[in-house]
Amino acid sequence: MTGPELVPAPATLVADGRGWTMPERLTVSTHAELAAVRPLLIDVLAVRLGRELVTVDGAADLVLHHDPTLDPEHYRLMVDSGVRIESNGPDGARHALRSLQQLIGPDAYRAVPRQAHALALPTVRIEDGPRFTHRGVLLDVARHFMPKAGVMRFIELMSAHKLNLLHLHLTDDQGWRIQIHAFPRLTEVGSWRTESQLGSSRSTHYDGTPHGGFYTQDDLREIVAFAHTRGVTVVPEIDLPGHSQAAMAAYPELAALPEQASTWAVWTRWGLNPHVLGATDRVLDFYRTVLDEVLTIFDAPLICLGGDEVPVDEWTADPASLRRAEELGMSTVEELLPWFIGELADHLRARGRRTVVWDEVGGSRLPTDVVINSWRGYRGGIDALRDGHDVVVCPEHEVYLDHRAAPGLDEPVPVGTVHTIEDVYRFEPVTDQVAEATSESGTGRVLGAQAQLWSEQLNSERRMDYAAYPRLSAFAEVVWSPRERRDWHDFDRRLRGAHLDRLAAAGVEYRPLDGPRPWQRRPGVPGWPLRFDELGRLVHAEDGAG
Questions:
Q1: CA distance 199 to 197
Q2: Which pTM was predicted?
Q3: What is the band of 1 on the pLDDT scale with cuts at 50, 70, 90?
Q4: What angle do CA 496, 502, 505 make, to 5 degrees?
Q5: What is the mean pLDDT of the chain?
Q6: Nearest Cα to 413, choosing from 266, 275, 290, 521?
Q7: Is the pLDDT of residue 544 over 90?
Q8: Each residue of 182-220: pLDDT tens digit?
Q9: What does the alpha-carbon distance between residue 308 and residue 356 come to, in Å, rounded to a whole number?
Q10: What CA–CA distance (Å, rounded) separates 277 from 256?
């Protein structure tokens, strides 16, 4: 694409080489159907750029026009003798404003104006809309807590890239981050740990420093309300029945082996935890109560219940779990997992919500309206599609952005396989095999894709910035732009020519394209880099090779 260097690339952009200068006093006319876009409009044009916005009816410097014939989230943006935005709702208008923000340049990403100056825009006509309706990012605030302001900053940057779903991972073995009035010990006990493992899950080093934090329900309502102004939906995750040691430390009676759980603390290490919730009515009722409070905070149509990496050894050793499996006619205790999730999915469905889980959960006991996050490659998602489930594509070895961004040992705490920015850009959610599965009768749909930022090694906003950007910019183009328009070399040109400057103006401490700065490295903190060998097996890469 020539002309203005937008990220993600729009479906069509025509520039004629002329320009228009935005006046300091800007008249604005907004159709009532697009009124919800005003908070973003004020933030970009008045707060960041210092323009005086004057509301008028009819002709104006900036017109936001409702066009019901456009598809959801689609928009037209015309800059000529003024700015005209057309969309069928606020989401499309927000996307148009984000494109306008990029056309203005880096100053539109600073918190306030540096100085008064003319704003010259290229005259353009853009017609655009998303490839996928589900353009998600997982933010893990359970392993390392991120204060409220950091979460809202993360949402702002997502929205600037036209990403529209924040999967907020609120609970895990290492911390419970959401206030639940019915069970105060979840945050009194479960929201902090005595120390944290340093480096990979194989490390013998610990930092000796307590870590904790949680969001009050009003904090989370504020986050959700802010996300609405940015066109982002917040999907909470309450991870169960594995990844639940923080909850069991607070309430040992939840555990499959409660006598042992009475000695447990919130977990201080990473990796696979051997403990699991009990498969009892008492535990299910506990989580139904938790979910009822969650639903008063989050209005997202989806609620994630986890279901990943669930060990069954404790169910096998627990007479009550064995009896429950036998009563339900199960041949193995492994079948308790989809049953357990299904019970809570029924509870959510009765309250107008839909469940999403990770791809370990499946089989005939799982209701087909449950959405599957396909993270262990594509196979789980393809199987789920054929079982009638809708799927979000999020394979670990392609879009887990906490994994290292380059070969070698210079990356801070190099873990996982290599995902360079080019690798992320070349990620394709709908492979030939996925497309074949969706073409069959009775299958589910691919809703979209999701990148993940697990925070074991990302203990600050600075570390999160480094892991996310600019790779998340590449992911945003994958899920937004038409597949046939994607061009790595053109993206690289736009990234270097304009977009990195936007990120810098926004205060994003992104990973430089030529590798980490000295202060971005973490020498002495042991990683565990992985690679695929010639037989496709995942092995340790001692030298950091990709």
A1: 6
A2: 0.98
A3: very low
A4: 125
A5: 97
A6: 521
A7: no
A8: 999 999 999 999 999 999 999 999 999 999 999 999 999
A9: 11
A10: 5
Pair of tokens at residue 58: 């009819």
| DSSP H helices in 453-538 | 461-468, 471-480, 488-494, 500-505
Q: At 179, list the tokens.
A: 């206030």
Asked if the model's pLDDT at residue 389 lies above 60, the reply is yes
How far apart CA 523 and CA 529 sit, in angstroms, is 15
Contact status, residue 93 vs residue 159, Cβ threshold 8 Å: no
For the cut 60, the answer to whether the pLDDT of residue 311 exceeds it is yes
* Percent of the chain with pLDDT strictly greater than 90: 96
- How much helix, strand and coil, in percent to the nearest 5, is found in the chain? 35, 20, 45
| DSSP secondary structure letters along 219-258 | HHHHHHHHHHHTT-EEEEEEEESSS-HHHHHH-GGGBSSH
Please tell me the distance from the alpha carbon of residue 239 to that of residue 329, in angstroms, as a whole number: 26
Query: DSSP states of 140-181 as a string?
Result: E-SSS---HHHHHHHHHHHHHTT--EEEEE-EETTEE-B--T
What is the 3-class SS of 71-121, one letter each residue?
A: CCCCEEEEECCCEEEEECCHHHHHHHHHHHHHHHCHHHHCCCCCCCCCEEE
C-alpha span between 60 and 84 (Å, rounded):
9
Confidence at residue 116, expressed as pLDDT on a 0 to 100 scale: 80
